[in-house]
Amino acid sequence: MFSSSSSHDYASSIQELNDEMGFIFGEIPPNDGLTSSVSNGYANNEPHLSCESKRIFSSSVSHNNASSVQEFNKELESIFGETLPSGPPSSESNSHANNEPHLLSGNISESCFELTHTGNSGEAQMVDVSPKESSKRTATAVCKVILGKTVFDLVLANQMAKGDVLTVAKIAGITAAKQTSNLIPLCHNIGLTHVQVDLRLNHEDFSVAIEGEAASMGKTGVEMEAMTAVSVAGLTVYDMCKAASKAITITDIRLKQKTGGKSGDYSWGQ
Fold this sequence. Notes:
By secondary structure, the chain is α+β, with helices and mostly antiparallel strands.
């Protein structure tokens, strides 16, 4: 303890704590107004406070620094009821990083996280998939378009000036999936075997929920085709409704799930 009495004065304890920190780290933490006038004098480098006032953790001048830090932690615990963490972070503190595999290193092969569209010198490249085996590939993507109540009611009643919003957006999404390699420079021109786009009106938040599916039998995945389908479908909803409101928001574009390929299956949130 800092004082021989268990009921030592709090301000005096803070002053002694500052002394300890100055001894270990070579500087005094800034005065926060909680310490006594003696602490203020020391923080302001008053000459009447000599180095003899500092308590040394070890009787040896060349004390072990690690031991000093350990004793310093004990002093903190005696005042505040807890001690500073020592050593490397525990497994519990690493739980968040464990949920983000791209933040970890060591056990996971670096090849899992290579940017395949980037060459050795950093230049953009189209991946050569010729060595790969053909397999069944599927992907599902989703998107949401928030309309607002006024526009939502117009779409629901099919009273938009440009016509049937949901049908036009559906066709636009299917068409876009087939044009993905023309829109995304490094995507492969693949033979799609299936494309489906569904749009559903959601009364809870006055939005349009869009889901797109794509499939192929080939050497590369169809994630981008599904993502492009829902993205362009969402843009088409905006175009069909923009005369009624400019505040329409396209949001939550993401891959929902995929199957096939070297990387295996994927499902959002799992």
